[in-house]
Amino acid sequence: PALTRLSHYLLAHYQKGTRPVRDWRTTTNVAIDLMVYAILSVDEKNQVLTTYIWYRQHWTDEFLRWDPEQFDNLTQISLPVESIWVPDILINEFVDVGKSPHVPYVYVGHHGEVQNLKPIQVMTACSLDIYNFPFDVQNCSLTFTSWLHHIRDINLSLWRQPELVKFDRSVFMNQGEWELLYVLSHFQEFSVKSSDSYAEMKFYVVIRRRPLFYTVSLLLPSIFLMVMDIVGFYLPPNSGERVSFKITLLLGYSVFLIIVSDTLPATAVGTPLIGVYFVVCMALLVISLTETILIVRLVHKQDLQPHVPEWVKHLLLERAPVLLCIRDRKKLSQSRTQSSDISRQAENNDSTAKLNHCSCEDPRESEMVGGARPAPASARHAEGSPLMHGVLQEITAIRQFLEKREEFRDVAREWLQVGYVLDVLLFRAYLVAVLAYSITLGTLWSVWRDA
């Protein structure tokens, strides 16, 4: 009976269409509070943030007062929200009506204090910066203001202290993709085209993405493929397997980019840094394949190729091994010298054998050594001269062929040595570029994450 009498007493002559003050010059002060319950979704493409918040309002209604002694010491009562005056406080960033549960009642104290507590699913526009994805931190604002009443009619204030609001994560669901860092609050006045001022309370919800999933599914596979590309340089350049290995890596990386393209956030205003990272990695793989093709072309020089130019020998076979600290450069030079010595020795032996053979078959020398039977010796010499002449021609042709082949081998060996040295030089330059790029990217991500 006390609740019924009090409700009839308060609402019998209540005018909910009028601001509840006895003097129109009195300002209605509305204290608001905000607690973030969950981050439901972050739509980077449409720049929309969906959050679930617990929102509280507190104001004084001068027409909802009573004496508790007359109503069985009742100091608080719940009344239908449709039956009393409620301030028209909205969120400026609203883009869609969320699926918020309807709370039909408010609490009213005997001094006229009205408490309106309700959960709200908020879909608000937010300027999302995805450049640092997946180590990005987003700062989205929720601006509460009266849509119609200026500051002389309705003023806003903060229910609790700013420090309590900032680090209040007591009701936040901390198991999703996003982590709540803090909530900042700021009061300000604004006016439109020099008209009346309006009160405005801003809450800045600062959230940070948890990057573990994206690190495992995006960064680590890319890093593994780049490591395999670096390891592929240890394949011998003259084996013929390096080109196919590099092409397989490039094809695998292309398939990987197709798979992860749906995972990367897309906006019309910018590209995340990880997208640039993938493009640069693809470019590095292409450069690595180009370098491999160049080296294979050098080490597979065919016949009738010119000798290595002297300036190339000076730079790559003398200077570069010293600078690059190639350990087997002495062995290569020794083998090249030994092969040249062997070819010259074979040439001298062939010339000596030819001279000795001709001297032994000289008829005058035969006559001087033993002139007992000169006629048969000259006859045998006359008979064997065409045969010996043909044999000497065949031997000369074989010798020229061997000399030419040895020359081709020397040219191929020189180009092979140039290819090996150039391969080491390009590999170390490629490795330095990859390390510098990785360190720069990691430093930028670390600095931005800490900032």
UniProtKB/TrEMBL annotation:
<dbReference type="InterPro" id="IPR038050">
    <property type="entry name" value="Neuro_actylchol_rec"/>
</dbReference>
<keyword id="KW-1071">Ligand-gated ion channel</keyword>
<keyword id="KW-0813">Transport</keyword>
<dbReference type="InterPro" id="IPR008132">
    <property type="entry name" value="5HT3_rcpt"/>
</dbReference>
<keyword id="KW-1015">Disulfide bond</keyword>
<dbReference type="InterPro" id="IPR036719">
    <property type="entry name" value="Neuro-gated_channel_TM_sf"/>
</dbReference>
<feature type="domain" description="Neurotransmitter-gated ion-channel transmembrane">
    <location>
        <begin position="218"/>
        <end position="440"/>
    </location>
</feature>
<dbReference type="InterPro" id="IPR006202">
    <property type="entry name" value="Neur_chan_lig-bd"/>
</dbReference>
<keyword id="KW-0325">Glycoprotein</keyword>
<keyword id="KW-0407">Ion channel</keyword>
<dbReference type="InterPro" id="IPR049944">
    <property type="entry name" value="LGIC_TM_5-HT3"/>
</dbReference>
<dbReference type="Pfam" id="PF02932">
    <property type="entry name" value="Neur_chan_memb"/>
</dbReference>
<comment type="subunit">
    <text>Forms homopentameric as well as heteropentameric serotonin-activated cation-selective channel complexes with HTR3B or HTR3C or HTR3D or HTR3E. The homomeric complex is functional but exhibits low conductance with modified voltage dependence, and decreased agonist and antagonist affinity. Heteropentameric complexes display properties which resemble that of neuronal serotonin-activated channels in vivo. Interacts with RIC3.</text>
</comment>
<dbReference type="InterPro" id="IPR006201">
    <property type="entry name" value="Neur_channel"/>
</dbReference>
<feature type="compositionally biased region" description="Polar residues">
    <location>
        <begin position="336"/>
        <end position="354"/>
    </location>
</feature>
<keyword id="KW-1003">Cell membrane</keyword>
<feature type="region of interest" description="Disordered">
    <location>
        <begin position="336"/>
        <end position="382"/>
    </location>
</feature>
<keyword id="KW-0675">Receptor</keyword>
<dbReference type="InterPro" id="IPR008133">
    <property type="entry name" value="5HT3_rcpt_A"/>
</dbReference>
<keyword id="KW-0732">Signal</keyword>
<comment type="similarity">
    <text>Belongs to the ligand-gated ion channel (TC 1.A.9) family. 5-hydroxytryptamine receptor (TC 1.A.9.2) subfamily. HTR3A sub-subfamily.</text>
</comment>
<feature type="transmembrane region" description="Helical">
    <location>
        <begin position="274"/>
        <end position="296"/>
    </location>
</feature>
<comment type="function">
    <text>Forms serotonin (5-hydroxytryptamine/5-HT3)-activated cation-selective channel complexes, which when activated cause fast, depolarizing responses in neurons.</text>
</comment>
<keyword id="KW-0406">Ion transport</keyword>
<dbReference type="GO" id="GO:0045211">
    <property type="term" value="C:postsynaptic membrane"/>
</dbReference>
<feature type="transmembrane region" description="Helical">
    <location>
        <begin position="425"/>
        <end position="448"/>
    </location>
</feature>
<dbReference type="GO" id="GO:0005230">
    <property type="term" value="F:extracellular ligand-gated monoatomic ion channel activity"/>
</dbReference>
<keyword id="KW-0472">Membrane</keyword>
<feature type="transmembrane region" description="Helical">
    <location>
        <begin position="212"/>
        <end position="235"/>
    </location>
</feature>
<feature type="domain" description="Neurotransmitter-gated ion-channel ligand-binding">
    <location>
        <begin position="4"/>
        <end position="211"/>
    </location>
</feature>
<dbReference type="InterPro" id="IPR036734">
    <property type="entry name" value="Neur_chan_lig-bd_sf"/>
</dbReference>
<dbReference type="InterPro" id="IPR006029">
    <property type="entry name" value="Neurotrans-gated_channel_TM"/>
</dbReference>
<dbReference type="Pfam" id="PF02931">
    <property type="entry name" value="Neur_chan_LBD"/>
</dbReference>
<protein>
    <recommendedName>
        <fullName>5-hydroxytryptamine receptor 3A</fullName>
    </recommendedName>
</protein>
<keyword id="KW-0770">Synapse</keyword>
<dbReference type="InterPro" id="IPR018000">
    <property type="entry name" value="Neurotransmitter_ion_chnl_CS"/>
</dbReference>
<feature type="transmembrane region" description="Helical">
    <location>
        <begin position="247"/>
        <end position="268"/>
    </location>
</feature>
<dbReference type="GO" id="GO:0004888">
    <property type="term" value="F:transmembrane signaling receptor activity"/>
</dbReference>
<keyword id="KW-1133">Transmembrane helix</keyword>
<keyword id="KW-0812">Transmembrane</keyword>
<keyword id="KW-0628">Postsynaptic cell membrane</keyword>
